[in-house]
Amino acid sequence: MNNDTYQAINTFQQSLDRHYENFIDMLPRIILGLAVIIVGVLISKVITNIYENKIKRKATDPLMAKFLSRLIQLIFVVIVSMLALEVAGLSQIAGGILAAAGGVAIVAGFAFQDIGKNFLAGIILAFNRPFNVDDFIKVGEHFGKVKAMNFRYTQVKTVDGRDIYIPNSDVLTKPVENYTRDGFYRMDFFVHIGYENNIEQAKGIIQKILNDHPDIIEDSEHRNFVMEDELTNNAVKLKVLFWIDTKDYKVKANEVRGGIIRQVKETLIKNGVNMNV
After folding, report:
1. Closest to 143 (Cα-Cα) out of 114, 119, 175
2. What is the DSSP letter of 160?
3. Tens of pLDDT along 31-87?
4. Other CB atoms closer than 10 Å to residue 56's CB: what's the count?
5. How far is the CA of 187 from the CAs of 86, 166, 175, 239, 244, in angstroms?
6. What are phi and psi of 134, to 5 degrees?
7. What is the separation of C-alpha 46 from the centre of its chain, rounded to a whole number of angstroms?
8. How far apart are the first and last CA of the chain?
9. 213 with 260: CB under 8 angstroms?
């Protein structure tokens, strides 16, 4: 072995020894830093759970409480991670991470535009949203009950049991139909009677059914009525319109509608109104 080779090996060995000694010296601080991260994450979970439960008891918007608690937890974890690097004596690494994060954020912003767009939309929706949990909404072709909202998606459960995850950006930019915002929804159906029947008599019979039904709402802003809609070749087409409570929309609402249709049919026939047209 020549002298140059021996010196290279010796230099490499000394470098390894020096790095090993530095690592041993820093090991307690690294362990302390890891402990800070573990304890910080646990504390963040406890704090956010307490916050979420406390807000849920007082707030009327559980979706916002849950969303904000997750956001607070994320911020807390980032702060704890930076603190752990500082405790471990890796402040230069922490600074480098923050500097690199800025550049990565710019690149990621172009590479993951949809993710960033949905995240920002989620933050906006947390404070300004046209629906609440358990509201029935329709976004595009998707209809169902709002179950949850996270950083990227709004979860909606359809009436046939499917879970639809709608991107927050769609919820923010597309028209949202809220079927339960004010608690009222108007339903309708059609009745065909023969030309020989008295129209006013038939309308009176149907109107009385609407007025007497316990599940139909009637006030100054929500009127229930029957009107002539069309004349067909062999019948007069009546349109029946009525208001119901939408807290259990699509289940209770359709049960009420079906019951009224059955009652109208049976009562009209009982009073001699010809419906065989």
Report:
1. 175
2. T
3. 766 776 677 777 777 777 766 666 555 555 566 666 666 777 777 777 777 776 676
4. 15
5. 63, 27, 21, 10, 8
6. 75, 5
7. 24
8. 112
9. yes
Mapping DSSP to helix (H, G, I), strand (E, B) and coil, where does residue 187 land?
Answer: strand
229-270 residue pLDDT tens = 999 888 999 999 999 887 666 667 888 899 999 999 999 999
Tokens of 89: 């004596």
Which residue type occupies 46? V
Name the residue with higher pLDDT: 51 or 170.
170
Q: Which of 269, 188, 196 is nearest to 234 (CA)?
A: 196
Task: Assess contact for 205 and 268: CB atoms under 8 A.
Answer: yes
> Cα–Cα distance between 143 and 149 in angstroms, integer?
15
Question: What is the rounded distance in angstroms from the CA atom of residue 23 to the CA atom of residue 32?
Answer: 14
Model confidence at 199, pLDDT cuts 50, 70, 90, reads very high
Which domains, ranges and CATH numbers included, belong to the chain? 3-111 (1.10.287.1260), 129-178 (2.30.30.60), 184-270 (3.30.70.100)
Q: Which residues contact 213 (CB under 8 A, 6 or more apart)?
A: 242, 256, 260, 263
The DSSP H or E segment spanning 84 is: helix 62-87
How far from chain centre, in Å, is Cα 113? 20
